[in-house]
Amino acid sequence: MLSRTQDRSARKAKSRRKGRGGVSGSKVTPYLFLLVPVVLLVVFTYIPVVNLFWYSVTSWDGLSPSKPFVGLTNYEDFFTRPELFRVFFVSLYYIGASVLQMGLALYFATILSFNTKFKNLFKGILFFPYLINGVAVSYIFLFFFQPGGTLDSVLGVVGIHNTLLWLGNPHIVNVSLAGASIWRFMGLNFVLFLGAIQSIPTDIYEAAELDGANRWHQFRYIIAPGIKPIISLTFILAIAGSLSAFELPFIMLDGANGSATFVIQTIKIAFQDNKVGLASAMAVVLLAIVLIITWVQRKLVPDEDVSLS
Known about the structure:
Blueprint: H1 2-21, H2 23-56, H3 73-80, H4 82-85, H5 87-113, H6 119-131, H7 134-145, H8 150-157, H9 173-198, H10 202-210, H11 215-226, H12 228-243, H13 247-253, H14 262-271, H15 276-300
Helix pairs in contact: 2-15, 3-15, 5-9, 5-12, 6-9, 7-13, 12-15, 14-15
């Protein structure tokens, strides 16, 4: 009787072990965890992208149930109509501002990564603009740049009274908006650079100081190579953000005085002119440009294993 009970218990234990460590269970479990995010990714990302490509070869107005196929006509319209293509030149202001923004962020992140008085206060000051809502930032700079506003008052204090129309002059309006963009987004680059710099072991700095390296040498031979992947990532994000600038020029000026960016122009064509097909073609072109720039950047500055030890 005792032997029969032991045999039954051994069979049950063997069955439980087989259930827990079975081949089918171990292979299926990871896919179950991936199922929901993959479904969400396909539904909300890849299917809309496929629809975008389809809309770009139609003359759909956004309302009609029919979507007549027109081939590459929308792409031809975009590249042959100067009023559509010249919005790219506006993006050059924001690309230039992004380069300056990255330089300033890297400078401040390097300075505040060392022992500096009130460095936590300065970190908060630099990052705070990024926390402000885009609408609030737009209204802040709307009053800042208006005639007789904050900027004109500050310039008047130092003796400059003949000021410009910062938002009314088509020749400088994009410079003003790009400057506001630097103020708002520099905090994000600053935090990324600061986190990367602080991840470098401190004993490397100590060894460099013992060898007589000054701050510039530490930046040139330790910090810059050590945060190269973050610089590369930030560059890609900056270019993509510059090409898709929207909030500040739209809220402050609605794209007037030559401040219309690529995204503003696309939205107006889609929802004011009811040319969703043409707007989709513009979005596809923007996507292609970002992918090409990213590919070129990856070819010119490939990721490499960094070893500072």
